[in-house]
């Protein structure tokens, strides 16, 4: 897999899984925009990773279409275009709202705006840039939590699955492939305040994973990077579970 002369935008790329996408893509030659609401942490990632010249941090709120458009404009200005989008930004804190009946309306809107609509806003911003390059690829980050009916987090990720299959059809004519990864339990900065790694191991097993392995971010990101690459050129509209067999569907 080579991403030489390619440009990728990774939302929520400052930490966690997003940062792994940034590292792997840059390692394989891409220039990468870290589009994150937390500019300080995004800039820290640029400074700490080995590929500083290939990276650009841009403060982006994916829940705001104008901010998404400004991000893509900055990416085009700095790197000359956009080929790939990883729609990774998310709010793990949304898991604290298990009831769709009781969640405050404003909170519900805020979460859906970032977790579901934000992926559409970024796609709307990035697709015209990809068309100028003759095509591209998008990976949306879902979750196997989509299938667990656990409230707004789950609902937003089911929406991401729906967005993925819809966009995969709509954008085929533009030579843009759209797929999703659905991670299982991943030890990230965002998960730390919610659950210890030991609890994650037990929780995943209780939900059906046949091992006690908790994923590190690279185990997920390498599958997403594969989906972006030409090696996956015949993979379109798929939601790929990366969960060590926790969610087995036949
Ligand atoms: N960690 C897990 O176990 C797990 C499992 C399945 C799916 N996921 C999904 O993977 C993605 C990444 O999760 P993570 O664990 O790395 O999270 P994380 O909390 O470690 O990182 C999320 C990043 O998104 C950024 N962000 C938040 N709101 C934003 C906004 N409005 N605009 C732009 N950036 C924003 C944050 O600043 C942060 O850098 C999320 O979509 C999450 O739902 C995580």
Explain how this protein is built.
The structure is a single chain. With 250 residues, the chain is an alpha/beta fold. The protein has one domain (7-240): 3-Layer(aba) Sandwich (Rossmann fold). It is built from seven helices and seven strands. The chain has helices at 16-27, 39-48, 65-79, 105-132, 152-170, 197-206, 217-228; strands at residues 7-11, 31-36, 55-59, 84-87, 136-141, 176-183, 239-242. The protein binds nicotinamide-adenine-dinucleotide. Nicotinamide-adenine-dinucleotide binds at residues 11-12, 14-18, 36-38, 41, 60-63, 88-92, 114, 118, 141, 143, 183, 185-186, 188-191.
Sum up the overall morphology in one term. Answer: globular
Which CATH top level class fits? Answer: Alpha Beta
Structural class: alpha/beta
Q: Which small-molecule species are bound to the chains here? A: nicotinamide-adenine-dinucleotide
User: What is the fourth-level CATH superfamily?
Assistant: NAD(P)-binding Rossmann-like Domain
End-to-end span in angstroms? Answer: 30 Å
What string, H for helix and E for strand, traces the elements in order? EHEHEHEHEHEHHE
Radius of gyration: 17 Å
As residue ranges, the low-confidence spans are none
Based on DSSP secondary structure assignment, what is the total number of beta strands? 7
List the domain count as a whole number.
1
The proportion of residues in beta strands is 15-25%
Largest sheet: 7 strands, parallel
Keywords: Oxidoreductase
Protein name: SDR family oxidoreductase
GO molecular function: oxidoreductase activity
Family: Belongs to the short-chain dehydrogenases/reductases (SDR) family.
């Amino acid at each position: 897999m080579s991403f030489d002369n390619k440009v990728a935008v990774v939302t929520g790329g400052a930490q966690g899984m997003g940062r792994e996408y940034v590292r792997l893509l840059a390692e394989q030659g891409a220039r990468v925009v870290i589009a994150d609401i937390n500019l300080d942490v995004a800039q820290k990632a640029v400074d700490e990773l080995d590929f500083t010249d290939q990276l650009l941090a841009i403060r982006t709120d994916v829940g705001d279409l104008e901010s998404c458009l400004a991000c893509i404009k900055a990416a085009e200005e700095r790197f000359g275009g956009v080929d790939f989008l990883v729609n990774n930004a998310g709010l793990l804190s949304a898991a604290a709202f298990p009831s769709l009946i009781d969640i405050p309306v404003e909170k519900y809107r805020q979460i859906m705006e970032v977790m579901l609509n934000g992926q559409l806003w970024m796609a709307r911003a990035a697709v015209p840039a990809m068309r100028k390059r003759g095509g591209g690829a998008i990976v949306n980050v879902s979750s196997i939590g989509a299938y667990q009916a656990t409230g707004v987090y789950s609902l937003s990720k089911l929406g991401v699955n729906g967005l993925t299959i819809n966009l995969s059809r709509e954008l085929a004519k533009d030579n843009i492939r759209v797929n999703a990864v659905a991670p299982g339990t991943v030890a990230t900065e965002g998960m730390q305040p919610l659950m210890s790694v030991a609890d994650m191991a037990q929780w995943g097993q209780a939900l059906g994973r046949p091992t006690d392995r908790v994923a590190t971010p690279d185990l997920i990101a390498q599958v997403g990077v594969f989906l972006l690459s030409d090696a996956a050129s015949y993979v379109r509209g798929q939601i790929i579970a990366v969960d060590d067999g926790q969610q087995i569907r036949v």
